[in-house]
Each structure stands twice: as structure tokens, then as C-alpha cells.
Amino acid sequence: MPELPATSGTPFLETRALHKFYGGVHALRGVSLTINSGGSYHLLGENGCGKSTLIKIISGAQPASSGQLLIRGQDMTGLDPIAALDAGIETVYQDLSLLPNLSVAENIGLSQQLVESSGRLFRRISPAQIDDVARRALSEVNLPTDPEFLARQIQTLPIAIRQLVAIARAIASKAGLVIMDEPTTSLTRREVRNLISVIRRLQESGTAVLFVTHKLDEAREIGGTGLVMRDGELVQQCDVTQASNAEIGLWMTGRELEQGRYRHSPVTPPAPLMQIQGLGLKDAYRDIDLTIGAGEILGVTGLADSGRNDLAKSLAGLAPPDRGKVVLEDRPLDPSEPASVISAGIAYVPEDRLTEGLFLEKSISANVTMSVLDRLRNSLGLLNRRKARELTQKTLDELRIVAAGTEAPVQSLSGGNQQRVLIGRWLATGPRVLILHGPTVGVDVGSKDTIFRIIQAQAENGTGIILISDDLPELLQNCDRIAVMRDGAVSRIFTAEGLEEETLYNEIAGSGGKTAREG
Amino acid sequence: MTATRTVQTDDTTKPGRLAQLWLWSARHPAVFPAAMIVITCAVIGVVNPDFLHIANLFDILRASAIRGLLALGVFVVLAAGGLDVSFTAIAAFVMYSLTLIVVNFLPGAGIVPILACAALAGGVLGAVNGLLVNALRAPALIVTIGTQYALRGALLSFVGTALFMNIPGSMSAFGQMPLATVTTARGLTVTLPAYVLLTVIAALATSWMLNYTLIGRAVFAVGGKPEIAARLGFRVAHVRVFVFAYAGMLAGIAGVLHVSANRLANPFDLAGTELPVIAAVVLGGARITGGSGTVLGTMLGVILITLVSSVLILLGIPSSWQTAILGGFIILAGLFFARIDRMILK
Prior knowledge:
The complex is a heterodimer.
Chain A: E1 11-22, E2 25-36, E3 40-45, H1 51-58, E4 66-71, E5 74-75, H2 81-86, E6 89-92, H3 104-116, H4 127-140, H5 147-151, H6 159-172, E7 177-181, H7 189-204, E8 208-212, H8 216-222, E9 225-230, E10 233-239, H9 245-253, E11 272-281, E12 285-293, E13 297-302, H10 308-315, E14 323-328, E15 331-332, H11 338-343, E16 346-349, H12 353-357, H13 364-369, H14 385-398, H15 415-428, E17 433-437, H16 445-460, E18 464-468, H17 472-478, E19 481-486, E20 489-495, H18 501-509
Parallel strand pairs in A: 3-8, 3-9, 6-7, 7-8, 13-18, 13-19, 16-17, 17-18
Antiparallel strand pairs in A: 1-2, 1-4, 4-5, 9-10, 11-12, 11-14, 14-15, 19-20
Helix pairs in contact in A: 3-4, 3-6, 4-6
Chain B: H1 9-13, H2 17-27, H3 31-47, H4 54-79, H5 87-105, H6 111-136, H7 140-159, H8 169-176, E1 178-183, E2 189-193, H9 196-212, H10 214-224, H11 226-231, H12 236-262, H13 274-283, H14 295-314, H15 319-344
Helix pairs in contact in B: 2-15, 3-14, 4-9, 4-10, 4-12, 4-13, 4-14, 5-6, 5-7, 5-12, 6-7, 6-12, 8-12, 9-10, 10-12, 13-14, 14-15
């Protein structure tokens, strides 16, 4: 690995005893850190530990409650987004913060125009300059620079490309510090490698990079300083290439985490619970034969276009298959709508919890009890509030959800806790088969650990579990068997015990690398 | 190393032929009202060849001028993610009050200062909408329903209820000033009034503002995702006040045009004409959810509405039919634009 510029450059940004309160919540408790020009830093910590808050303060999105922020030695405490951009701080937010209805070029180039006018809006813009800035930035991240692509609306692009556009925007101006909040969640390995080389070039020109990440492997590949946060405090600074996963996990959570396989009692013989027979959906998947035993965890993986997502939706009643059948405990399943699937005893926890799963502004209680309201009736047929509260409290306790109470809105929770609320809702239905789609996407290691333990406990109770994921360690740690889908069909089923990650990866990618799915 | 989901960059940045067509339509929503106008004209032309006469074009343009101004305002508010239904009340308030003031105190005032005053007064009333939306953090639709009633009530309670026809000379002259004249086969003289130019200028100015100024792009940014626009440094509150003030300004001008063209000032006029204007904007391809649409589309939407609702009268088509035809077009627009979204959105 080439030598990275050490973190011995001149300080670019310094924070001194930053505190942040949200109402009664003390989100940051005196964070002091220094970021040197040309250095790379990895902000590590569980969801809800204050990482996002720290980034929002540094990028000017929110003011700190107290403390100081220095940029190049100058006190810039309380800066707004435009002042932050002007001072050379660029941020790639986790939600990418792209304007969906504006063009690629505008998303990249408008910020600069806004900074030049100091935020005043009654100014002419220069489309030629916007296009110029966009072309330069796009070529840095190997995206097309033709006029047609420049004019494409962001909302018409797939998520991986949006992520690259967001990164292009951040590096469009010569920034002193680029903050990237989980920049690789939707990228392929090739794109990640490309991103890493972009980052190296940035560092060579003196730009500091601050990553927020859950992916320790990538952090090590980039190298630099790990900044570990827990409960709003900076608890540890380390060299990421030297610290082990176990050490970092311990700093982040304050407790030891499982590193190997999570083991539930072996299923022998697996009593067949659900059988998928010759299931097919035009242009999505075909000839799917799978059996899930009681208490078994079956992994399903494959590339994004392998058909795994459509299969998941079909089993949830969201995309009725046009061939084959599903038999659950000897009864044929009617997969034509979610209601019939749910009443048959299948619970589906979707991948995108924000848009497909949770009612963010509603309370935890409302979210958890939503699918079991009929069991919470009193003699008049009205909702028994006490029962609802008890059920919610039980879910909070069992799933170790950290919340201000059963009536707190779900959007006040961290990502890991939100995910647990969603899982809790479906566990409340007492499902026979639990389908989890990417249960730990954007979830930190501590929450992952908790979620895995919940999954294992469910399997112990005899629930059949289908875990659809592209996180290979997650599959290897949890599953009994792993089915790999390619081009719409199951290409192979592995026994997970003793399986090498590389073997699994090669099967997913296929020998030819890129998948062809024409016609 | 974790494998991540894969998207083939090369395929998705180079859309196929059909996908390109949809993408093009999404960027040029004016194709929809344009196509509807062509079809409607062709059908009418077959039934009644007399229709395809320049005189009818003049009629359509004249009848579209006021609705066009109002629609531009609605479109700008809609592009920023709001919805304004108070514009007719603003137009009525400004036209009646201003005409009254001019008649009683400044009978010799020229049309230019009158228009300027109307623009200013409308702009101020519109800005109040924007300030209320910001201060109350309430949906624009609710706020403007409130201001619509409040303004109309204030107009009828405090300003007056009587219509009067002795409008100022400069306004009456402006309403009759011809731009072009044609004579039909039956010997009727049809005039294209000069005030149509006002709408054309407003459309060109609005289009320039939306596409070549920061505030214009900010309007779309806020209409796309306000919280992200704010994070990127767009001052969302300023943009909101601006769009409502802009709509109010156009409504004020439209009010004066209305009096000038009809040569009477009736405080009960314009009430209840909100929906056809909003329908025109939607026919032109602006999504009701904000952040989209074009000035050209909006203008063609207005012409389509005028074509169906007023010109068909001249051809003797019953008004119940017109309503049904209009409803059909609007549903078709809904289908078309929803289809585009389904085809292009990832």
C-alpha cells in the first residue's frame, strides 16, 4: 500500500469542547478534535453516538450549543452552510442531499454560484460555468460528461450513480476538507476502488477527508486516523490500520461483540415449513425452488438485478408471481396482496425502512402495534391503550430499543433503533416465516449485533427466516444455508458453515464478472 | 470485504431509444398540451373548416391573456412546492380598489403608473401569503384559502360592492388598443388587443427568471426538496416570500387588464375562476407536488383551456360537452405525466 500523507500537516479544522443539546437530549458532550490538511479520518461509532450531529455542526447545517469551531486557526463558531462551503468544507451527506428534480450539472455547479453570490439570490447564473465545473468534477469520478448526462435529472439516475454525483459535487471546488457520510453504501467494489483513488489524489493536493463509516475494511484500505465516538464523546483516537475489529467494537459499544458465527441450535431434521415451487415472475425471476425449515435461517443473495429483490417482494405479496406456488405448512399461499400473506403468517421487513416500513412521525407505540391492532381490542371492540403500551414496552425491552418512551416519534430514534422498531412490529404478529430484507443496511456494529441476536432467537423459537442481503459477512455469520441468485434463477445453494467469503462472492458475481441480462 | 449491490454504470447512464424519448418528454412537458391543441384544432377543423381562420387565433389569444398572467403566478408558486388559490382574490381586490382610487382621486393617471401600482399592491398582498406560510409553517393551500376569503370579505365589506362602468380613460384606451386586425369572411372585424403583449412579455421574463437566475433555480430547488435546498444554502424562507409576491404581482396586473378589457369594474368578478387556472398549469406539465414544469407548457395549457372552454362556444358546442372534454384532457394529462414518472424515475 502506498504511503499516505501522514496526519502531520497543518491543522485545518479544530473543534474545542463542542456540546449540542436537542431539547433534553445531550447529543454531543464536549468533542475536541483536530483535522490536519491532507489527512484522512474515520469517524466510527454506533448509530446515535453523535457522529451525524458533529458533522452537521462542522458543515454549518446546525449550530453547536456551546464550544468553538476553528478553521485554519480562525474562530468560525456558528457558521452557516454557505460560510462552511466558502471556508472549504464540503459534505457528502448520507442521504446525498441532491436535489432530485434538478440536473446533474446544476447539482454539482449551483453551490459554487451560490457561494460566489454569498447566498443572495437575485443574481444571474452562468450555465456555461456550471457545465464546466460539472464536467471537471464528473471526469474525476469517471462519470460521463456529455451534454445529455449533464442535463439528466438526478431522480432518473440509479442510486449508485447519484452517490458518485454527490461525491463529484464535493470535490468540484478545491475544498480544504471533504466530509463523506457513508459514501460507499451503494457502490460496487470497482467504484469503491475508484473512489479511493480519487481520495488519494485529493489528499495529495492537501485536502483532508473525514469519513463516517461502518465499514472497517474500507477504512483500513484508506488508512489514517480512527476517531471513535460513544454517547456523544470522542472516546478513542487510533491508527485504523493497527486497531482490530474487536478493539474498535469495544471502544464503540463498551462491550465485547461476537466476531464469529452466531450459532443457534442446528436444525436436524429441518421440518419443512415453507416450500417455494417453480415460482416465476416475468422479467424478474424464474423457476425458483426453495424450502425453508422451521427454525432455519436461509440466506438469499445476488447482485441487485439478480431477481432477489423481486422475489422478496413477491413473497411479501407486493409483486404477485405469475407462475409456480408457495406452500406454507401444507396450505397454499395466496401471494396476491400483503394482507393475505400477513394473515398466512409471513412477516416482511423491507429494505428501505424509511419509505416502505415506518411511519416516521408516528409514535413507537403506533408503529409497533399497527399490524396487531385486532389483538388489542377490548370488549367494546375499541383499542385497549394499556395493552398497546404493554406490548410496546415489551418490544422496547426485548429488542433493547433506546427511546424516550413508548410515545416518542420514531423519527427521534437513531437508525439502528428505528430498524429494531420495524422488526419489533413484525415479531409482534408472531410470524411463522420472517423475511428480512437488508436488515442491517446503514446500521452500526453494535446494533447489528443486537439485530443478529434477535434473528437467532427467533430461529431458536422455530420461526423460519429468509435473510435477503448483500452483506456477505452478515450472511455467513447468521445463515444455515445461502442461496445465490443470478440472472433471475437460483444458481447455487451453499451450506454456510465453513463457507469462504471469496467462494460466495465469486458465485454471486459469476465467472464472467459482469452479468448480461439482455432480452 | 463486503460485497455491495451492483449497478452497471455503463448501461444506466446510456439510456435506450425509448427511455430517451421519455426523458425528453419529462424535460419538455409542453409536448402534452401542444399535442392536445393540435388534435383539438384538427378535429374542429374537419368539422368546421371555417375555424382555421386567423380571427379565431386572435380570439383565443385575447381570451388567454388574463388567465395566462394568473397561470404564470400559479406555476411559479407550484414550482416552489406551494399552491396559491388566493390570486383571484388579490386580482379582484387590486383591480376594484385601484380603479376606485384612480377614478376618484387621479382621473388623469396614465396606464403605466396604474399597472406599476397594481403590480406593487399585488406583490405586497402576495408577500403576506409567503410571510404567513413561513411564520405559521402551514401548508400554502390552507393559508391561501384563508387569505382568499379574508381579502374577498375585506373588499366587499370595506371597499365596495357596486360595479361601475366609468373606468379611467387610460385603462379603457389600453383595453382597446389594437395590435392587429383581421376581417373574417363574413365581414366581421376581429382585433388582437395590444395587452396580449403584456402576457407574452411576462411569460418571457418568467422563463428567463426561472432558468437564468439563482432565484429561479432556487424556486425549483425548494420545490424539489426544501430541507435539502436549505442544507445547500438556499434561503427557503426568502424563496417562499418571493414566489407568492411574484404571483401576487402578476395577479395585480391581471386585475387591471380585466377591468381594461371589460370596461367595467365589478368586485364580484374573478371569484371562483381559480380551478381552471390551476388546471391549465397542470395540463402544462407542472406536477402538483412541485419542482417541475415549464413556462411554455403553462402557456400552452392556458391556450388549451381557452380553446376548449371559449372557442367551442363559437362553434355551437354545448357547454356541458366542453366541461366533459376538459375533464377528459385533465385526466389524460394525469395519466401521461404519471406514466412519464413511472418510466424515468429510479
